[in-house]
Amino acid sequence: MRIAIASGKGGTGKTTVSVNLALSLENAQLLDCDVEEPNCNLFLDHPLQKVKDVGIRVPAISKDKCTSCGKCAEACRFNALAVLLTGVILFPKLCHGCGACSIACPEGAISEVTQVIGSIEKSASHTHGIELYQGVLNIGEPMASPIIHALKGHIDNSRTVIIDSPPGTSCPVISSITGADYCILVTEPTPFGLHDLMLAVDLVKDMQIPYGIIINRHGTGDEGVEDHCSENNIPVLMKIPYDMRIAELYSEGIPFVLRMPRWKDRFLDTFRELQVLTDRC
Length: 281
Hints:
This protein is of the alpha/beta class. The chain is built from ten helices and eleven strands.
């Protein structure tokens, strides 16, 4: 079973839910797909080992063969190529590695080389039974999705897989939650939280992924999120209160289910509810 944890915006507690849910299951595989800033391991403190580099194929243009006909630039939908009097220049940060330019070139002047944009790491131990994989996007690289695709290639279908998605509703989120059996949307009870939650709900509806809500920092803000969920028949799976003890443990990098075991039971109950909702009992 694959459970994606997403949110319409950052800072709602998505990673907190991912890590504590994974720890409650004790035989989970946790994928940190927030590749621009993976932080699940801040709470697990696993020793990590590099699995592999991840790259995309970018064009290499032969000046001897190129006639500056411009066919390559015409074929590029991302404006990664420009034809000047001095020849063709490449803007590598705009290149998506689709290979259209090399197909369009009538002179055979374009070959492809690999440009490393990040890496995949895994936990070298399975503390608390969790196997962690995380993607790391190199600083300055703009495209997260190739890292996420490579990361999901390590999914172990014999385990329950928890996917910690990036925040927002853009391409990296779509890459992360594609193929999930269920998506938990984490939000906070504020007008900003509700606004971004509604964007996330629209996304999972479009992708036809079953979903439910976890409200973090419950007891602050207002009732807008709960009212919206009630009016639209959106299941609220759990409410995590604004609790000083939880906040203290978070600030120390300690998942709260490890020190407040009653919450492990709450997460287990939620997991069993998801099994029923997805017909995976």
